[in-house]
Design goal:
GO terms for molecular function: 7S RNA binding; ribosome binding. This protein is mainly alpha-helical and 681 residues long. 63% of the residues lie in helices and 2% in strands.
């Protein structure tokens, strides 16, 4: 009895210690006291529960789950369902957590909160939305703001991944988390400018909220802002501002945030910007997508996009085996997805195995008819690259859901025209027109009611008629033009085409149809001739003149000088232009092509150095002989010489006249050189 009393007293003291440590948040010390209690009574339910809670608070989720599974007889699902489900959730055993929650006999508020988180991780957004709505409706506590934040996150996920137009929940965007989630929802709708404004508001609200927070570290601030800035960069990337986006992405990476999910997304986005360029940078960035825990931070579509880009990067870096391995893995995970098989086909094409690539695409198209259209378009592109245009046309015409589309019709007609297969081109037009005729009629109470032809239908008929006229199929074109004219008898353009076509086949029919043309009076255009002639683009302007009678009228009719013609404005004259001197007729030719060009005299100055005594000039004696200058007859000056001659036959062109001060300048230079010389004989 005394031993039992002593044990009870010790247990009471230990429980007091556990209570005190729990209130102080010292769960490590509380765990030691709980273990001592369990040594006294190993099946104490309360002590086991406290031990699980202490382990969870210390982050030891695996050990806590082990304690629960070890004592299943004592810790039943009704007693510890929430703790077990929470440990499974934190250990990323999401399916197990869902089963634990659903197996609980009583759904407490804590289990409902955890249920919403589990549904979000499983990407069951509709069920998750209903769960949070129920929680907000039936709960009133200090966690209401967090529930609204989670609700807005679900709406943003629906808009982004399921392309669901989000409903207005009427949430007041009082926190930066709500602003951020609202921006994500707008991005999913393609409203990028509005989303950018929301992100800027989220940043402002966050910075303003820091004023009231004292225990926030700089790392926490950078981490939160990095998420906002990353989303801003993504918007820039979608808007085509790739340089700005790349700069912001790299700034975030330099901060080294602890969120591996954020780093993986940013690295993936940088890889998509680089594409087949800067592959070495992409190979560095791809390592960030392989960090531990990334698969638990991102959605399935995000992880799938990262794997697709890894396969493409392997292809661009000529890692053929790695590319095939990744694309095959992706195809096994998503057999109906197009990208894995397209990547495999692209890799085969890089290896010059086009036939094998086409066979692979054909096999996929046969297995997945719902996605056959896009695959066949790729097959046709490969056939065109090989020069097999006719086979490409056959593949395109096998896509039934696209046969009547104007783009497909235009492509087929162009390709058949290139191959000079006019009959097949006309057949394409005919099939498309027939498709619209069959789908134009609708049944109304057993009666067939025909509606007016659609604009696309009429456009196809017109294009077919023009094509047939161009290639000499006049009778077939007439049939199409008559169909168009019946639809719109007031269409003068179609009537004119029809008359023109009949004039080549049946002139009498053309005359009959020409009676339907409107008269010239009804077709006259109200044009102000004077205003047209006086407009800026008119070639001439008629002079305004008074009333002319008699001789003046005859003069007006016979004198062409009364019409003032616009002429070009005179060009600028050279500065040394002399109106008395006849310009050089060869002034427009390059100097080397003129008749008087003799080439440059090379080494003239070198030849003159050292000739004569010191102080003598290099001028020739003949130039200093005044008697010779007076008696000798004047000679024609060379082009470019400085002599002035009054005879018109030897006039120097204005562009070749040297400035008057040029010789003087030369003499001055010689004088300076002479004056500065040192030494002597």
């Amino acid at each position: 009895r005394m031993a039992a009393a002593a044990g009870a007293a010790a247990a009471a003291g230990l429980w007091s210690e556990v209570n005190r440590c729990g209130q102080n948040g010292d769960f490590a010390r509380a765990l030691k006291s709980v273990n001592k209690i369990l040594q006294i009574n190993k099946d104490d339910v309360t002590a086991l529960q406290c031990k699980v809670v202490c382990l969870i608070q210390n982050g030891n989720f695996k050990e806590a789950l082990g304690v629960i599974n070890t004592h299943t007889k004592v810790l039943t699902s009704d007693v510890i369902a929430f703790e077990k489900a929470y440990c499974e959730y934190r250990l990323n055993r999401i399916e197990s957590a869902l089963k634990t929650i659903q197996s609980a006999s009583q759904q407490t508020d804590k289990l409902k909160e955890l249920y919403g988180q589990v549904l979000y991780r499983l990407e069951r957004y509709d069920d998750c939305l209903a769960a949070y709505r129920d929680l907000i409706r039936n709960s009133q506590d200090e966690y209401e703001e967090e529930r609204k934040t989670n609700l807005s996150a679900v709406v943003a996920a629906q808009s982004t991944w399921e392309k669901v137009v989000p409903e207005d929940l009427g949430l007041r965007e009082a926190t930066y988390e709500l602003c951020y989630n609202s921006a994500c929802a707008l991005i999913g709708q393609g409203k990028l400018n509005e989303a950018m404004k929301k992100l800027q508001k989220a940043e402002e609200v966050f910075i303003f909220a820091l004023i009231f927070l004292q225990d926030v570290t700089e790392e926490d601030i950078e981490a939160e802002l990095a998420i906002i800035h990353g989303q801003m960069a993504y918007i820039m990337q979608l808007q085509g501002r790739t340089e700005d986006a790349l700069q912001l992405y790299n700034q975030i990476i330099k901060l080294k945030p602890t969120d591996v999910g954020l780093l993986a997304v940013i690295a993936n986005n940088i890889i998509t910007i680089n594409k087949d360029q800067n592959v070495f940078d992409s190979k560095k960035k791809v390592k960030l997508t392989n960090a531990e825990g990334v698969e638990h931070k991102l959605s399935k579509k995000q992880l799938q996009a990262i794997e697709f880009n890894k396969a493409l990067l392997a292809m661009y870096t000529n890692q053929a085996d790695q590319c095939r391995k990744l694309s095959a893995s992706l195809q096994s995970q998503s057999p109906e997805h197009l990208l894995p098989v397209l990547i495999q086909a692209a890799q085969l094409c890089r290896e010059k195995q086009h036939a094998k690539a086409i066979g692979l695409l054909q096999e996929f198209a046969d297995q997945h008819p719902a996605n056959a259209a896009e695959i066949k378009l790729t097959m046709a592109q490969l056939k065109i690259a090989q020069g097999s245009v006719t086979k490409a046309c056959m593949i395109l015409r096998s896509i039934e859901e696209l046969q009547h589309k104007p783009g497909m019709v235009s492509a087929l007609v162009t390709m058949y025209s290139h191959e000079e297969d006019i009959d097949s081109a006309i057949e394409v037009f005919t099939q498309a027109i027939q498709w619209y005729q069959q789908h134009q009629a609708r049944t109304n109470h057993g009666c067939c009611v025909f509606q007016p032809k659609s604009p696309v239908h009429l456009s196809l008929i017109r294009e077919a008629a023009n094509f047939k006229l161009k290639h000499g199929r006049k009778k077939e074109a007439i049939s199409d033009l008559e169909e168009l004219w019946k639809q719109n008898p007031k269409d003068v353009h179609t009537l004119a085409q029809l008359i023109s076509a009949y004039s080549l086949v049946d002139s009498e029919k053309a005359k009959v149809l020409s009676k339907h043309l409107p008269s010239s009076d009804t077709m006259s255009l109200k044009v102000d001739v004077d205003a047209l002639e006086n407009s800026h683009g008119a070639t001439y302007v008629r002079k305004k003149a008074g009333k002319l009678t008699g001789d003046n009228q005859q003069k007006e009719q016979g004198d062409p000088s009364l019409i003032s013609w616009h002429c070009c404005s005179a060009g600028k004259l050279p500065k040394n232009y002399d109106p008395k001197v006849t310009p050089d007729p060869e002034r427009w030719l390059p100097m080397r092509e003129r008749s008087y060009y003799r080439g440059r005299k090379k080494g003239k100055k070198k030849d003159q150095v050292g000739k004569g005594t010191q102080g003598s000039t290099t001028t020739g004696s003949s130039e200093l002989d005044a008697s010779r200058t007076a008696s000798s007859p004047p000679t024609s000056p060379r082009p470019g010489s400085g002599a002035a001659v009054s005879a018109t036959s030897n006039v120097i062109p204005p562009r070749h006249q040297k400035p008057a001060g040029a010789p003087a300048t030369k003499k001055k230079q010689q004088q300076k050189k002479k004056k500065g010389a040192k030494g002597g004989w």
